[in-house]
């Protein structure tokens, strides 16, 4: 099952890497600023960015840190990250092809570890968190940000199914309480958590980034048009001419390795 997920991720992101390199919601966003503000990287810090995609989180930390190791399991995403880092003349980045659940690093070698908008694709989030714990030094900092889901099971089920239709490599969005529990169970002390930030999306861009075919786009449009008032409210769905706007809540978390 987990091999199957890994293959789906590689197929999806391998095909769409150039689109992700242009994606504004990934390149910018107040969530990225908050992650840097909370983690306060300094010129001596060794940073690990897991599931870096086309590198935007790694770049944000590289401006302050001594070195950032950017990892991902999709080679094409790392190729785009390398290209974009060159355009930004960032020279303190290293790249490693790696699964989040099996990191190829020795124990305790990083001061900060980060992961943004990716764990919802992981087959084993508890194993990923155990790996983040292992590779951080004692007292090291973990900063996570992922699209989250409401605690209410019905609205959550609508979102999970919508995500899977758009991207077969989607596994699951976790609610804020699930994130807190899993992070603490992995041996971290959660110091800060925010659910104030949202990823603001438009359906046309969202399906373009995923490379959806016209049948899938039609199916998704219908889901949004038929969504219940509770779902519309939870995901701030609004219609503007032909366009559909919506937003996902982000769970952002700062935790200390104990
Ligand atoms: C949306 S992109 C990440 C965005 C990026 N972190 C950013 O801040 O812009 C999701 C990435 O997760 C990677 N990924 C998914 N599952 C993974 C896993 N189990 N291990 C490592 N990388 C994974 C994909 O290859 C893809 O590049």
Structure ligands: S-adenosylmethionine
Poorly predicted regions: none
- The quaternary organization reads as single chain
Radius of gyration: 18 Å
Structural class: alpha/beta
Distance between the first and last residues' Cα: 32 Å
Count every helix, treating DSSP H or I runs of 4 or more residues as helices.
Answer: 11
Largest sheet: 9 strands, mixed
DSSP, total strands: 9
- Average of the residue pLDDT scores: 95
By CATH reckoning, the class would read Alpha Beta
Q: CATH superfamily assignment? A: Vaccinia Virus protein VP39
Tally of distinct domains: 1
Tell me about this structure.
The protein is an alpha/beta fold and 258 residues long. The protein has a single domain (2-201, 249-257), classed as Vaccinia Virus protein VP39 (Rossmann fold). The chain contains eleven helices and nine strands. Helix 5 (75-87) links the parallel strand 2 (67-72) and strand 3. The chain starts with a helix and ends with a strand. The mean pLDDT is 95. S-adenosylmethionine binds at residues 9, 13, 26, 51-53, 56-57, 72-74, 77, 99-101, 116-118, 121-122.
Which key terms come to mind for this protein?
binds S-adenosylmethionine; 9-stranded mixed sheet; alpha/beta; 258 residues; Rossmann fold
In short:
By secondary structure, this protein is α/β, with parallel strands linked by helices.
């Amino acid at each position: 099952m987990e091999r199957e997920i890994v293959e789906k991720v590689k197929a999806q992101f391998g095909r769409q890497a150039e689109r992700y390199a242009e994606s504004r919601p990934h390149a910018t966003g107040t969530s990225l600023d908050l992650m840097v503000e909370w983690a306060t990287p300094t010129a001596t810090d060794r940073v690990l960015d897991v599931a870096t995609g086309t590198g935007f989180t790694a770049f944000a930390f590289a401006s302050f840190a001594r070195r950032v190791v950017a990892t991902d399991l999709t080679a094409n995403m790392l190729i785009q990250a390398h290209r974009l880092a060159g355009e930004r003349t960032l020279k303190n980045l290293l790249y490693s092809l790696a699964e989040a659940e099996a990191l190829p690093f020795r124990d305790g070698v990083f001061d900060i570890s980060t992961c943004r908008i990716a764990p919802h694709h992981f087959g084993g989030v508890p194993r990923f968190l155990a790996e983040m714990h292992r590779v951080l030094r004692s007292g090291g900092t973990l900063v996570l940000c992922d699209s989250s889901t409401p605690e209410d099971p019905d609205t959550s089920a609508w979102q999970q199914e919508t995500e899977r239709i758009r991207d077969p490599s989607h596994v699951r969005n976790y609610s804020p309480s699930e994130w807190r529990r899993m992070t603490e169970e992995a041996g971290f002390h959660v110091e800060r958590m925010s659910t104030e930030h949202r990823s603001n999306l438009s359906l046309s861009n969202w399906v373009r980034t995923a490379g959806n075919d016209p049948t899938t786009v039609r199916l998704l449009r219908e889901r949004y048009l038929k969504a219940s008032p509770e779902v519309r409210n939870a995901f701030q769905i609004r219609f503007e001419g032909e366009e559909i706007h919506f937003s996902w809540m982000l769970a952002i978390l700062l935790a200390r390795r104990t």
